[in-house]
Amino acid sequence: MTSSAIDWPTAERQAAFDQWLAALTGTWGLQPQTLAAASADASFRRYLRVSGARAGQPCTFIVMDAPPPQEDVRPFVRIAGLIRQAGLHAPEVLACDEVNGFLLLEDLGGQLFLKMLQSQPATGPGSLADTLMRSALDALVRFQCGVPAAELAPYDEAVLRRELELFPQWCVQQEFGITWTSQEHKQWERVCRLLIDSALAQPVVAVHRDWMPRNLMVTEPGPGILDFQDALAGPITYDFASLLRDAFLSWEEEQEIDWAVRGWDTARKAGLPVAEDFGEFWRQLEWMGLQRHLKVLGIFCRLKHRDGKPAYVEDLPRFFAYATKVALRYRELAPLLKLLEPLSGRQVASGFTF
Q1: pLDDT tens for residues 226-241?
Q2: Which domain holds residue 167?
Q3: At what angle do helices 128-146 and 253-269 cross, to 10 degrees?
Q4: The model scores a pTM over 0.85
Q5: Domain final residue pick, 61, 91, 106
Q6: In 233-315, which residue ranges form alpha helices assigned H by DSSP?
Q7: Is 6 inside a domain boundary?
Q8: CATH number of 25's domain
Q9: DSSP annotation string for 5-43
Q10: Is the Cα torsion angle 283, 287, 290, 295 positive or negative in sign?
Q11: pLDDT tens for residues 86-128?
């Protein structure tokens, strides 16, 4: 049996995959004829699901197809190991072809936090949303406590600045066709300096970099953790900002703060070096979130213009709203408003919120 039902960029890559899968078929009882698309993401990776057996019991597995040179599976394998050593549930790597970029993984199922939150968005005490978000916060604290930051590359100034520069390059210039004046470039540089300095001043922990409902799954034990291959050692508030101001759903600020207080208190009790004052923790989180949201505005536009994935730009208003809310709140960040307004118009001028 071959993977002929799956689209492949080249016959050579299909042949390499079929040869790799055939070598695993006896060990895991794989049934290549059941191969089907499971999901894709914003990178060049994609995921396939295949039936098989483990310990004599029927089950399914996930195959990661990560074509070199665009993707490298080694960080995924290494960081999955660190997460599992910390007692958290990353998918077990069962087989790996580093050269060709194929992995056979434990299947964590199909119950994403995101889908469940979108289907039941009510946030009162005891609600599904409250239960899931509290679970995500508790797991994040365990992630920060258990995954050794020393084993990860630094989230340093070079990375922070490279991410911020995605905004003027892909959002301002490519998406909106705007060229900044020298004065506007100076305003941008001042804002970048503030955001970078704030990030670098924070205590350093393991940073997942996309700790959000789309990458968390309802599993036992849970949550299941996905998309961690880009983890770095960096600012302690980064993943809190990712979770509370998400790329695909938003919450009332009162609810954001309620969950942030819980996460901050849990982190303090666990011995993590969060700010002693919650107000300062919240400021750090908002400024860190702003850095992330400016980056994402650039990434989503790059996905459209470079990678042929235009659907992501439908969420640009959400990120303009996040960015505007923070820029309005802090006097030091006010110059950013003048740069945002030509891109999102009346929403920015009125301080658009959800």
Answers
A1: 999 999 999 999 999 9
A2: 113-349
A3: 40
A4: yes
A5: 106
A6: 238-244, 253-269, 278-305
A7: no
A8: 3.30.200.20
A9: TS--S-HHHHHHHHHHHHHHHHHHT-EEEEEEEEEE-SS
A10: negative
A11: 999 999 999 999 999 999 999 999 999 999 999 998 898 899 9
